[in-house]
Amino acid sequence: MLEILELLQSNSRLTAKEIAVLTGQEEDEVKGIIERLEADKTIIKYFTLINWEKAGLEKVSALIEVKMSPQRDVGFDSVAERIYRFPEVKSVHLMSGAYDLAVFLEGATMKEVALFVAQKLATIDNVLSTATHFVLKTYKQDGFIFEDRENDQRLVIQP
Amino acid sequence: MSNNKWSDYINPSVKRIPPSGIRKFFDLAAEMEGVISLGVGEPDFVTPWHIREACVYSLNRGRTSYTSNQGLLELREEIAQYLGSQRVHYDPKKEVLVTVGVSEALDIALRTLIIPGDEVIIPTPCYVSYIPCTALAGGIPVTVQTSMEDNFRLTADKLEAVITPKSKVLLLCFPNNPTGAIMDRETLLQIAELVEKHDLLVIADEIYERLTYNGQHTCFASLPGMRDRTIILNGFSKAYAMTGWRLGYAAGHEDFIAAMNKIHQYTMLCAPITAQVAALEALRNGKSAVDKMVAQYNRRRRLVLHGFKEIGLTCFEPGGAFYAFPYVGDTGLTAAEFAENLLLEEKVAVVPGDVFGPGGEGCIRCSYASSVEDLTEAIKRMGRFIKHRGMKKVKTVYS
């Protein structure tokens, strides 16, 4: 099961048949496992990792550090939900350390991101402060290096 | 002197060595563009980053000196510890020698043991340097042909049939280049009995030992009575994707290692310190990287075996290394013809099996140390090539 997940994480376009060949399992068995993993939300979604800059689309990404006061019974969860429901918000993590939530945002312009933080995020009750850091360049994301310069330099034939 | 040809001055032992069959094929492939190569004998991974980083750090600190001839003691200690995990124990101070790749270790091991005229038994198909290096050391290479019917294992019967009073060394390489064959413990025990009975020594090239897929590798020196009859050769090229670092080692009885060290100190002096530092990091912290690479090779192994079956090529299931050795004789072509035409027509490079000695005829070596995408495309092209040619006959003995 873990091997199937690993393969799908590296290439979500692999078919059950291809995975069966790579793992030495039966195709039906692989199909069944994938269906089960999808049903129990172990597999949440299939993504394509795109270098948007290369595709000619300028997007602005930012990391927002959010400090907040926890609420009775629900802790940080309730505020976190109010934040992660916004479609501009790409990911939200509860952190240990200097701040509480790490919020990744995407917008068309810097102004759009800044206004979102000022008008939507900072105004939520229990949010004490925010600090916005704009992403200047992405080198690596989800384990993949964007512009890998390590080409295959092997000779064509070797002993 | 000036009346002689320059070739007259060349040592006859060197002149007798035929040019490498791989070289000729390489020259042909090197001129072409867009070739998918299954002809490579090295990992397609680069050395794991933490190993490279440890080397760069050592350079920044100015670690650029010679080391002791035998190699950094801390590295030898790690090597001894690693071999200990395979149930064979060596004293890192006296019984381990760090060399410039396994190639150097093999050369000096042969030169240390062979007295001109001694016979060296070599199971074939084998790595291309075994026969020439034996000859250069003054030994007589005696080949034992393994076959697909025996899964390219060396059997006790075949070994015993070639033993003579002049037999001195048995040169083993399992998992094997080019076949990918591995030896099971039971057969190795039978071989060990013969080694004892006929007072042979064993050079065990275990460079592919980490790359085994079905079951545990048996270290030959760990078998009863074999530790002091065996020189283990191993290195970092294959398991840790460190081919260009040229770092290997030998382990064996202290008398063998001391004698090998004499040749080593007057030829290589010592292995490069940067590579030794990197190897130290590899042994200490490289296990998870090796495990990941082995898992990848295993998937690709399944992929090529499945692919060959789909396109109608007979191939025994390799248990180790990263090579498959399918039979192509059913196409009516020799291995060399198959490889050459496949390269010219479909731009896929493979190596004809006969360059690896007797027993390799009719087969081609396909390395699966390439990406899944490249392997898939290469198999597709091979299928097209075979379909275009048509199978001349159906061979049923290898199923």
From TrEMBL, chain A:
It comes from the Bacteria. Residues 64-138 form the Transcription regulator AsnC/Lrp ligand binding domain. InterPro entries: Dimeric_a/b-barrel, HTH-Siroheme_Decarb, Tscrpt_reg_AsnC-like, Tscrpt_reg_AsnC/Lrp_C, WH-like_DNA-bd_sf, WH_DNA-bd_sf. Signal peptide: none annotated. SUPFAM superfamilies: Dimeric alpha+beta barrel (SSF54909), Winged helix' DNA-binding domain (SSF46785). This is Transcriptional regulator, AsnC family.
Automatic annotation (TrEMBL), chain B:
It is an enzyme of class 2 (transferase). Its EC number is 2.6.1.-. PANTHER family: ASPARTATE AMINOTRANSFERASE, ASPARTATE AMINOTRANSFERASE-RELATED. It comes from Desulforamulus reducens (strain ATCC BAA-1160 / DSM 100696 / MI-1) (Desulfotomaculum reducens). It comes from the Bacteria. Belongs to the class-I pyridoxal-phosphate-dependent aminotransferase family. Residues 34-381 form the Aminotransferase class I/classII large domain. GO terms for biological process: amino acid metabolic process. This is Aminotransferase. InterPro entries: Aminotransferase_I/II_large, AspAT/PAT-like, NHTrfase_class1_PyrdxlP-BS, PyrdxlP-dep_Trfase, PyrdxlP-dep_Trfase_major, PyrdxlP-dep_Trfase_small. GO terms for molecular function: pyridoxal phosphate binding; transaminase activity. Its cofactor is pyridoxal 5'-phosphate. It holds the Pfam family Aminotran_1_2. Keywords: Aminotransferase, Pyridoxal phosphate, Transferase.
